[in-house]
Design a protein that fits this description.
13% of the residues lie in helices and 44% in strands. The protein is mainly β.
Length: 135
């Protein structure tokens, strides 16, 4: 009986250790007008172009979206500006949130805070971004 339990424990340990641990996703919070460094890339949250997200506590016809501009700078290269849409997209608009891709790595936007409320003017915007590895 002891040998059966020992064999089971060894097999269980082998199965657990054989599984790949997922790569953690670490987000960076960037205030409107602020620049952050991710490796050798600078990302500036430049502007909120549109915030038509359905406010909390309100029934809306569509979920809405937020459109933002980011400036991306790499040493020795010209700064580029990208528009990112989080939420609903229209015809001929990209739903791609990855705004920087290089050598199998990417930087993407995944949220804008705060979420609007019907009774409060939205202020103090923050863009949440993360880096990752392309599959």
């Amino acid at each position: 009986m002891k040998s059966l339990i020992l064999t089971f424990a060894i097999c269980l340990t082998a199965v657990i250790n054989a599984q790949e641990a997922p790569t953690p996703q670490i987000g960076v919070r960037v205030a409107l007008g602020e620049t952050v460094e991710i490796g050798d890339v600078s990302v500036k949250f430049t502007e909120v172009l549109e915030d038509s997200r359905c406010p909390e506590g309100v029934t809306c016809v569509w979920a809405g979206r937020v459109r933002v501009l980011v400036d991306i700078s790499e040493e020795g290269k010209a700064t580029i500006q990208k528009e990112v849409i989080i939420g609903q997209t229209r015809a001929n608009e990209s739903s791609e949130k990855k705004f920087f891709i290089r050598e199998g790595n990417f930087i993407e936007a995944f949220a804008v805070t705060p979420y609007p409320r019907f009774d409060v003017k939205t202020e103090g915007y923050h863009l949440l971004i993360r880096e990752g590895v392309l599959d």
